[in-house]
Structures are given as C-alpha cells and as structure tokens.
Amino acid sequence: MLNWNGRDFLRQFLPGVMAHSAGAAVFVADNASTDDSVALLRAQFPTVRVLENGGNLGFCEGYNHALAQLGPAFRYYVLLNSDVEVTPGWLAPQRELLEANPRIAACQPKIRQYSTDPAARQLFEYAGAGGGYLDSLGYPFCRGRLFDTLETDIGQYDDARPVAWATGACLLVRAEAWHALGGLEPAFFAHMEEIDFCWRLQNAGWQVWYQGGSTVFHVGGGTLHKSNPRKTYLNFRNGLALVYLNTHPAELPAVLISRVALDWVAALRLLLQGQTADFWAVLRAHGHFVGRLGYWNIRRRQFPPRLRLHERAGTYTGSLVWAYFARGKRVFEKLGVRS
C-alpha cells in the first residue's frame, strides 16, 4: 500500500486488509507524510512493515522505489490503494488466475463503490469497475462505467476475461513482469500509469485479466478530487503520452492528431463552462508533452509498440466519444465490444 497523509484511510481500511489477506506480507510505503501516518502504523499495526520513501515521490516512483527494496522474495505484488475496503477471500481468486496461466502478468478484481449507503455500494466504481478497456483513440473506459455513467452490479460482470488494463487501485502483478518492464512510468507521476503499464505488458507478450470472482470497494478521489486542475493536467498530459508511447507506428499519426483535436474541444468546453483553471491545465499539459518529446521517444524505443488495434485484448474499434455523446450508448453492452 502506498500512503501519503492517509492516516484516516489506514485506520479505517488497513484492519480489513490484515484480516482478509492470509498468507500475504503487508507493507506500507510512505511518501513522507506530514500527518502521523507512520506513528499510527508503528503503534497500532506493528506487524505491518513500513517503507519510508523519504519524499513525496508520487504514485509511480513511490511504488517503483518501494518494490525495488523487496528483492526476489516475492512472486506477486499487490498494489492496493489505502482507500480500498477488501472483502473475505478477495485475494485467492486473483492469485489462482495467475498461477493457472503463466502468461497472465496482472489482474484486478471487481471494483465497486465504497459507501455507507447499501444501494450506492451496488454501483461499479469509476476507477476499474468491471475491467479496463480502450477505444480506437486510446480513451480508457470500463465495463460498468462509461464516462460518468455507472452501472449497478447485478452479476453481469462476474466472469474472468482478458482486458486492456487493470486498475492501479487494486492491481495484482507478477513480480517477474514488473521488474522486466521497470515498473510504472516515472514521468507520469500519477494517473493513467497503470494503463500505460498494462499496454506495455501486452506489447511485450503478456496478458492482463479481470477476475470477477473477487470484489473490493473503492472510495475514489481520496488523494485528488477529479475536478482538481492538477488532475486535469495529469490526465491530459498523460493521455497524450499514453498513446504516443504505446500505439503501433502505422496507427500513431491518425490517433495522435485526433486526440489533440479532441483535447482542444474539451478545453474550449471547460472555458465556456467557466472552468478557467482547468482550461489552462489542458494547455500546460500539451505544452509539457511536446517539451518532453525527446524523453518520450527514448521510452518508446525501450518498449516498442508491437500490437495493432485488432491484436490487443480489451479494445473497442470505434470511438467511445462518438458512441456515448452522439449515439447515446451509456452502458458497456450497447457498444458491442468483442470478448
């Protein structure tokens, strides 16, 4: 678990992790919290091993630095947000999936919304839901969640299947694959880093799966609210970097041009809605993406994109933006995505 000033989440959710994770060693990597998170861990959770990163390294480097310290002792890692409530037996179905198929490098459970309201707990959660997908332009979405439309869990996604990406809120990953790819992309800092990692896994010949036989509940937005301009900046910058790093060379020009154009449409919409700070965040995101093209090119050569759209699992060959806003397709099953 990665922590930054998450004392209250640790107090609330860590007891469940300890109770329902038999056979697993629990580590908390702390990004130089300024609250009393570390003191709380040492006083109330003495069996939890604390890794102090020495600074706020962000989500990506926070995990990279922490997992580099563990060495070869573990076959699997679980990246678990501190604002996740686990359930009895949550870990075993995922671990069994990886043990049954050595080509599966990562998987996620079903992610539902954490709430004290029983009806709200039946809703899929924004970050991960019933498994991650990508459309033809690299826009991420999930079974159970298209944009801000959340489905109710009625058992429609209880299966196990390959997907495009698994959420970083609760990500089980094979240690061999993690280290082969060097972990998460450090330049992302946070947001979309797990999508990039999973896309790189597929390009390297691994598989990414969803395991609907396991369920956890996620608060979401626990560290950065989705309307925060900082998050807007990270999402737009990392969104461009994501497609630039991982799209097949034959498909990249059309995808990148389309993404830039749609980003400008989104920026103008934000401006018209009076969200000036978010508008400027989009512009800064584009400027900083272009300013680091040299770095992105180095990374693209290190992990060359090998798969075309139709060769990747968890892809929708159409445009999610068009299907959702122009054609009114608000739930996953209406998209007609291939299995």
From TrEMBL:
Coiled coil: none annotated. It comes from the Bacteria. Gene3D superfamilies: Spore Coat Polysaccharide Biosynthesis Protein SpsA, Chain A (3.90.550.10). The keyword Iron does not apply. Keywords: Glycosyltransferase, Transferase. Residues 24-123 form the Glycosyltransferase 2-like domain. GO terms for molecular function: glycosyltransferase activity. Belongs to the glycosyltransferase 2 family. This is Glycosyltransferase family 2 protein. It comes from Hymenobacter lapidiphilus.
